Amino acid sequence: MKRFSEIADRELTWAQPDRKKRVYQARADGEVVASIGWDKGSGSLAVAESADGRWTLKRSGFLRPRITIRVAGADLDLATFHASWDGGGRLELRNGRTFHWNNTNVLHTAWAWTGPSQTPLLRFKGKRMTIEAAGLAVPELSLLALLSWYLNIVNNESDAGAIAVATVVSIA
User: How distant, in Å, are the alpha carbons of 12, 76, 107, 128, 167 from that of 46?
Assistant: First the structure.
């Protein structure tokens, strides 16, 4: 796999190669750059991998949702994402660095990671991702990219679950 910093001038696209498996890959010009997958058919524990490392991501909490990120096989959290009511949030790393996940359009279909200066580092819309020039200097770039897709998946599943519950309640 190539590092995210090596494909900065190209658009990345996320895809699910096998609909029967909960595994997704980020590709640039057909080459796999990263992957994220769930061992179980349901649940929030996922394993994310790129040339820069391998991590686990797990969502917890209902009223105050958060996502913990660990180096795969480790017991200590590397980072925690604190979700906000609008789908955005902030990622706090154990070393004190902070990044923000911000909505960038009215429809909540486009997002961007920003650093302390609020400069966009990585943009995400639909299944497409682009790395901004400022993102190349960020050592956590691949982690931000993987977390972007994880947020997309868990938010879509939460929305689908809420719709299903509302449908059942309205029918009953």
Answer: 20, 16, 27, 20, 28
Q: What CATH number is attached to the domain comprising 115?
A: 2.40.160.200
Q: What digits encode the pLDDT tens for the residues 17-72?
A: 999 999 999 999 889 999 999 987 678 899 999 999 999 999 998 888 899 999 99
- Alpha carbon separation from 27 to 4, 9, 24, 84, 116 (Å, rounded): 10, 13, 10, 29, 28
Query: Would you say residue 172 lies in a domain?
Result: no
Pairing of strands 53-60, 89-93: unpaired
Residues of the domain holding 118: 4-165
Q: How many domains is the chain partitioned into structurally? A: 1
State how far the Cα of 146 lies from the Cα of 151, in Å rounded to an integer.
9
d(CA 160, CA 59): 16
Residue 49 token pair: 């991998």
Residue 101 lies in a domain: yes
